[in-house]
Amino acid sequence: MLSNVWSDIRYALRTFRRNPGFAAAAIVPIALGIGINTGVFSILSNVAFRPLPTPKPTEMVSVYQDFRGTKGRRVHGARSMFSLPEYRAYRDGTQTLSGVMAYSKSWTATLGGPPSRAALVGRFGDASESPQEIEGVLVSCNYFDVLQLRPLIGTGFTAANCDTAGAPPAMILSHALWKRAFAADPDIVRKTIALNGRDVGVVGVAPEDFDGIDITRAAFFAPTSLQPMLHAERDFHDDANTSWLTLIGRRHPGAGIDQVRAELAVIAGQIDRQQPGRTTSLIVAPAMSLSLPVARQDFLSIAAVVLAAFGLVLLIACANVANVLLARAAGRTKEIAVRLSVGARRGRLIQQLLTESMIIALAGGVAGSLLAWWSFQALLAWLLSSSLRGTFPLPRIDVQPNLTVLWFALGLTVATALAFGLVPALQASKQDVNTVMKQDGASSGGGTGGWLRGTLISIQVGVCMVLLISASLLLRALYTAQTIDPGFNSRNIAVVFFDLRGPTYDDAKVVAFQQQVMERIGSLPGVDALARVSRVPLSPGRTQTTFRLPGQEESQQVDVNTVSPEFFSLIGMPIVRGRTFTADDVSRAAIVTEATARRYWPGQDPVGRTIVMGREAPLEIVGVAKDAHVSHVAEAESSYMYLPAGPSTERRLGLLVRSQADFAALATSVGKMTRELDPGLVVRVNRLEKNLDLWRKRSRLIASLSGSLGLLALLMASVGVYGVVSYVVSRRRREVAIRITLGASARDVQRLILRQTLRPVAIGMTIGIAGAAAASRTLESVLFGISPFDPIAFIVTPLFLLGVAGAASLVPTREALKVDPMTTLRYE
């Protein structure tokens, strides 16, 4: 068998050398299909299956919980996380784990500003004038010990400097922050830095390639005891009823995950008995960079859709190559018949044909994988920078090859070889030797695989239809997003944002700062209007609350925004009924949108009616605002309410400033004014238009990728249709010549061939439209302002594809009709 395989490989290579056009036509589509899918899978694998950056990562397990029977559980991250007392119970009670550490989600802190002591604040320029926001995580003191990582310099967290009563606050810097902000100062561990206005001692610098174990990069690591310092308005450090910590453990050698799961379940039962009615089930699994259950589920759902879309391109490529192999096999019917007549077994012929298919797939797989690793890293960097820069910390994603990706590429290559090679091999080796040997060269093989070629064309067209309609829907959504009127004016409006959550601000200082900053910004040259807002229009996220109608017990959920009276006139949002807020409306009034009024007071005027929020006094509806796209560009919320903003202890202060002055000059003036009030405070000044641009940028990115995918599918399907029709016409030249000789017109022959060749195209289009209708439901969240069954996309796209298929069928037919019938008959 091995001798036969080696002989088949040499024969196939000689064949490809003699027919480079055939080899290119078969290898190039497979290389594109495998390359695209391998590159996409490498990105998805790096996000979902990347092991933790620690020695012996297979020993690490993540622990999450799912509990019932609790009331009033507070969440700061995800419900499946743990409180600090719960973490201590698992840490102290386990025997199967050599260590259990905890860490929080990412926190934002202000680095820099004037220190409270005469200490050097690092060497990152003028620290007193250049505060900056950085992202970091709060960790248990054994965080680096469990990961088996040692700081590059410094002692790291020890019993003397971590969570010890009376010990000064301490932190570990990431290697990147140490180099960027402190010029890689080797003496940094003997200095303090200003963090949220407090002096914090540096006890170490993390290893060079380590910036946390999550997908987002951490600039610093601080003990959990610093939580009140980073989130001053709420101290939940020792609260047993707040979920905010993720647990990661390292298994003892020989301890399996099932043993760990069983032991931790006992500890969970002990915690449950302390809270009657509570029932906890644990989720214990190998630790990955994306272990959080809710995030992992959402990501894998998206990944399945993405891989399915790119897998369809590979399916078109396989159908293309299968048709090429069928055409080639039809030309080899005499050769195959001779082999069978001299004693070759059918299994031996199938092996030879599958060997050729495997070589094509391997060549395409190698070329495609190299193309993916060469191009996807640069493509990924461009996508991240163009879509996320300036909004979120860039995640840690790369497409470097690893064992998982290599196995995926190999498995995909083998599956591809079988997908496009097996059926043609079975079809080609199934010959009636006597019939074939009696036929002449012109007619032999003319009917080989006709139904199979039609089926492959239907598959190509159907898949192409799904991708093209999806791309058309997304392109239509892009146009809508680019032209949509959000319902408010965003021009010449700046967003000024302050974060006062540091420990230097108590409630009285927060209120005083708000009054001062509004007075000073309002007096700047060119400022026409100023308004407070808790949720800036079209900013990420949303704030929700519940209310009740008088006389009803059922609570209704509503999006809510707290604004000052000037908000509506500043952004040009009309009050269609009633009035805006006044200074006397604090805590007593509300304004609802038109859609909210229609939903809860259909056919009635809501102005003057009341609603109840919690145990507070009833709120009077004083006005109805025009519907606007303030949370999501795709929809004007059906339930949205505005509440009046008065003197508040809210530490996140957002201001909308309408100014005719140059934006850069306004930003400079606001920054200078802020430094006069508090040199250590970070202020962000952006254009309100930028929020709308972020939604449009997301739409452009998705539409560009889907459009490129659809065009690639269209190109492959068009080439497939053209190739099959060219082959069929070339095999029917004698028939065409006879028909014309007997009096048929060229138009009649064209109509006959087009009717026969476009039949599988029509079948494929019908199936594709049905598939696109089902697939469009998964795109609803990104279809801005259009229906998932948009008639333009579902009518124009099929007509366009039908025109392309008709053109691909017409060209080879017209070429065949240009040949003189007598010349063809004499040749035959």
Description of the structure:
The longest helix is centred in the middle third of the chain and has 43 residues, at 346-388. Strand 20 and strand 21 (619-625) form a beta hairpin. The protein is globular and about 105 Å long. The chain contains 22 helices and 24 strands. The chain has 828 residues and is an alpha+beta fold. The chain folds into 3 domains: 57-289, no CATH class; 449-488 and 689-828, no CATH class; 493-688, no CATH class. The protein starts with a helix and ends with a helix. Strands 4, 5, 6, 7, 8, 9 and 10 form a 7-stranded mixed sheet that branches. The relative contact order is 0.11. Mean pLDDT is 81; it is low at 114-129 and 441-448. Helix content is 49%, strand content 16%.
Provide a concise account of the structure shown.
With 828 residues, the chain is of the alpha+beta class. The chain folds into 3 domains: 57-289, no CATH class; 449-488 and 689-828, no CATH class; 493-688, no CATH class. Helix content is 49%, strand content 16%.
